[in-house]
């Protein structure tokens, strides 16, 4: 199913049972058994004391649902609109680095599962597979993750390359002027395994990156390129390079969201980087209403960080998000079962959302409104 095709309504009952119940705790436990400790901690860990990492989940738990009854939910329409195109459901995959550490097929497996489930995939700049390989492996809607580096030539070549690969949009990380302190990675002496590459970044870097560079050398190249001096002018510069829509990822304040729209952002992604950057930052779902109000329908708003259940998706929609982005559960599925494991996660979340909508009296995503929530006092 392409991004432009409308999604059929899902019939309730045995015929609509599209996925087995999703047990993410068991899936993560299986992934942990399969992964080297350094890889597991890289994916699972957060910044400093991991308070924000935990609070992302607790914030969802504090939101209680107020279901309606007798609303005629014999069929449900889970589709939504993103960047002007119709999507079969409001679940997207967050940009996450180094899928090759989770499974030998890496991003190619993730992309194939995304295509099979009608899911939009944001491909990380630190994808082990090059963007052209990901595009060739899958007809899923692809967004490409970018940073604005000190060497603007790297960014320019990156944008040209991903645009040529046929991505739909650019996802620009704006919450990482410096790398957050991640104690698990420090303890483990994290380095990208030498057999893995970063195909898109290497291609964009060209002669600036030693062709023989692997592992720690790739890490050092990235860290040397991070530019803490970025301002909104750099967003304007990035927009001047491309006609692709920009989504700014890492916004947690209404005033920043309003400025993003003024600078031409087509979307903002409310995210605290999965708790990996500034510890004790506000949970993303807590920040969501303020951002939605500030954007006031002028751009798409997505929610990232902490999404683990279909009820989480429903709550984000009720607070005004157009869609959500899912991160770590995808990696656990990939580590546990490759392409099939990722598909299991995506289908499971979609089925949970369908069930939550039915039990809440919402026959479509358009019928999901703020009064479905009892907001914490």
Q: Can you put this structure into words, describing what you see?
A:
The protein has 14 helices and 14 strands. It has helices at residues 24-34, 37-44, 51-61, 106-116, 131-137, 152-164, 183-188, 199-205, 216-225, 232-241, 254-262, 284-295, 310-318, 328-360; strands spanning 10-11, 64-65, 75-76, 80-82, 85-87, 91-93, 120-123, 142-146, 169-173, 246-251, 267-270, 300-304, 323-326, 373-374. Strands 6-7-8-9-10-11-12-13 form an eight-stranded parallel beta barrel, surrounded by seven helices. α4 (106-116) packs parallel to α14 (328-360) and α6 (152-164) packs across α8 (199-205). The longest helix is centred in the last third of the chain and has 33 residues, at 328-360.
